[in-house]
């Protein structure tokens, strides 16, 4: 029994034995890693932010729009990388057993160290992992070295920790592990450095066979997906950007927060305390005054690099200032100067901000590191002498590391490397405030070899190097100096080998960048391949590398002219001949690539920010100016902003000086300290914050820096979490911003109290143009408050309130108007409002339309109307809902002398005839009613009689609307067929009594009876009346009614003046038109006569054309016998050129001959339109005789014979060569002209200097002929071109420098893209028509690129193409730089209705159709 019992417990024994071996290995590992630690690891003082999983949102580039009415904008789902809540690491890891927990952090934040510490705690029975568990720590970067498949057992015993036992022991451990997976903890350290990322499997529940060899990536995936060792504890560390791969697999995700200032000071103190304690205070002061050093030091690994750099620099400076015979530490110099005079902080505010940051941690601003007061007298080293860019800091730091071991072993003169030299041999003297390189002291050979290793690793995506990868001398010096970290890795058989990696990933990337800039091994193509901006928006589809994507940043930094001397020295060490020229060419290439990105208008917010970082590193002011020139407003959406990001923005924004620049932050989280840095951009003119993240604390901090924006004109703080307290803060800051013209605080929670805070400051802002305060959970009291301020703010032009949705103030020196729409009025509320309005010195308009009214409220308003100083009108639309309300209002006409006119709408009020009497009585003797709407009531004949009886008393009536009648100004319309003869007679007799001018319209009345004509005629011939407009349409003058046409002619000739006469649709036919044309010279019409839809034939069309000859004041004739049956005769009071248009008229040969004769008889005719006409040879001969005196000729879609076309072209050739003034508009569309005709036309064009517009659409033009044609056109001052069928356009269009308009149809997508690109050579282009080409996004993208340089462009037509949302988005981004562009037509493209609506909300100039 005892023997059997022991046998059954053997697996547990082996398990405990293996745990003991693992504990020993972890303790040894911790001793190695903890050696030289600057800070103790204290999990209860390490802060972690809780992150939520990415919610399947790819690119959060838009803040949601506001709710339609009264609602508040929903909060976006959170920016990438922003902490939602925080707790200690100790609390975060509680309860992690049996779960998958992810700890994210930036490279160098200490993730690997923390995992080793947790392992060391486990060995002591402490920490979150129970001692009964097996602790397995796998560095995934080491697993990259494993290429062969392996089983779980091999992973455990060959790679993690070989056991001292035999195969039986190994099997026993594996068996116990598989039976008790919950007793194991697997730490997967550095998922971001694992080259083989996770792939989702279709069958999630399929278990993995632990004995089957498989790729290491599949084993890792199995552990995370619980298909292997389900129930085990899994801890994963990763960079933030790679956490998206673990969505759906992790139970909890946390992010290590960077060090705060207290922790940084503690680290610096610990670094210097053991060796250079007297330098600690100076180092801390300099570090906190340098934005780059401070930002780097928030990460433990980089803080160590900064300390090494500062130690080296301070030692060198001390040696140079050492007095002979004394120790350096005893020398007294002038006090330590902490100033920022470099390009990053031109206002010298760095020191103040570091002290304020200390105060945030509860520290005394006077308190520094130990012996601070004493150390201040030691050195005159200034922070302004710190390198001005991150790239230069890395170069100085790497050099400092390389010289650590040489300093201690005697070394040589090469130790003088990153000097702050006083010698004039270098680039600055002692009085200079700029950092300089003493290039002769650079350890060029070591830099050259290290950069080669780093570049090869980057090319191969390797961060771990073996002995054979690095030359022995370089390896030894790098390990000794600390640039290389040494580790032990296990090979395939479990043996331990030495491996190395750079101190930090960014160090390897920097050295790789140095290789790019100093070695011909890296070609220009390789450089271009590596040079790209990275976005901060992380998606599962992104291709991620093991590196931090900082390579291009350091390349840009090394392209700075400040780095040129150092690069030349390193380049010479690589063996380059003419190193100086080569380096300068390579730098020029980088700047050229950077310039192309600066000019791109298609970059998203994150890439724009990365571009700012690159430009800042390059220190190139011209590039910075280009960034802002292309995008005057920088838009940033939905990502976490660091202080270094704001620094980069400040560098770019300040490059343009006082020129207008805007910053738009949408849902970007930032620390309050960022606003201090942002205030350095003092010439910003537009500043916007949109997100619920921005609340009262943010507003309070913003208010403290607002006065520093001395050029600020527009401030938006909308869609945020602003309450009345935040409004009070902003109001206090705004009173010191006199240049502000626009404020937008809409979609917050200001409530009435917050509105009062804003209103109180308005009087102090004399330049205000508008203030928006809508959707702020306000009541009518807020609107009343603003109205009260009208009396104190003389420049308020308008108060506009629409329910709770809109609340806007408009400012101007002109008279004011108030719009309070859709309010819930009460008697007391109206009383308060009326009293405020009575105090307003001058109002032009008061609009109180809509809302909820009762009679008592209306009475209260009318009582105060006599006290109002309103110069124009009061509008009460949709507020007069009853007869009693109308009586109350109409009484104002007689009771209030200041009320001169009134418009009353009583439509749909169920009025009876008796109700009209009450209205008439309320009007009294007044006749000032101007507009009366009685439509949709039950007045009947009795009501009509009462209306007509009262009408003569209304001398100022402008419009009366009824179901049967409508009167407007001088307008009278009868448009109902059901009126009887007696009705018409009655109306006419009443109208005769009216003393105003009349506009008459009789429509849809087919039978004019003899009984009517006497009254109708008397109406028109009264000498004291004037009929300005007559419309007599849809009658029939046929048969027995034809006699009335003569009477109509008499009436028209007796009228004093008509603006226009409409006789359309009267069945006049040819004879009726001919009869009317006889009287035409005696009819006084100022505008036109409309004879459309009268059944004209070709003969009738010719009758109308003769009016050009018979009537001197006829300026134009338009006739079309097509479907529209259009016929217009236009008039002009004075002489001038005349126009004839006869289109789609199916004219025969004899008709054309007669038409040609008519045209020849009209000597002032200069413009002829014969489009769509069949032209015979005889007619062509006659027309060609007219060409020499024409200025515009349109023969589009005409059908010519070959002989006629040839004769026409020959005449053009003769006329163009002889005439100094010739046709300037020429349209030959639809001729289907081939190469022969095109060649003849091409020969004419060089001498045709007056040609401005030519249309050649739908012709048969080959490529060679088309190119010759366009080449000839380029010699003209051509402004408008409509061409289709030409395939090689782009090259010729480049030479059309004066082109104003181009319309292209039936062009291939590829050629059209080239044409779009060529428009950048046409600076005066105004109208671009690319409709009906079936072009795609390529064309839209090309247009987006040229838009910023086409300053005169006003219209783009892309109708009926295949442009998708991607193309539209590019156009939207480009439109920000195109204020002159008025419309882009995008009808019938591949844009869904939802997308169309979204784009329309973003950019109102985009026009979409519903199909």
Please describe the biggest sheet, giving its number of strands, its sense, and whether it closes into a barrel.
Answer: 22 strands, mixed
Annotated CATH topology of the domain at 10-57 and 79-256: Rossmann fold
Number of strands: 43
Instruction: Tell me what portion of residues adopts beta-strand conformation.
Output: 5-15%
Helix content: 25-40%
The value of Rg in angstroms is: 43 Å
Question: Uncertain regions: pLDDT < 50 for 5+ in a row?
Answer: 1-8, 53-83, 325-380, 407-433, 963-978, 1004-1027
Mean pLDDT: 75
Straight-line distance between termini = 87 Å
CATH classification, class level of the domain at 10-57 and 79-256: Alpha Beta
Q: Give the oligomeric state of the chains in this entry, treating copies of one chain as homo and distinct chains as hetero.
A: single chain
Shape: globular
The second-level CATH architecture of the domain at 10-57 and 79-256 is 3-Layer(aba) Sandwich
The helix/strand class is alpha/beta
Number of helical elements: 51
CATH superfamily of the domain at 10-57 and 79-256: P-loop containing nucleotide triphosphate hydrolases
Organism: Poecilia latipinna
Biased composition (Basic and acidic residues): 334-344
Domain NACHT: 99-239
GO molecular function, one term: ATP binding
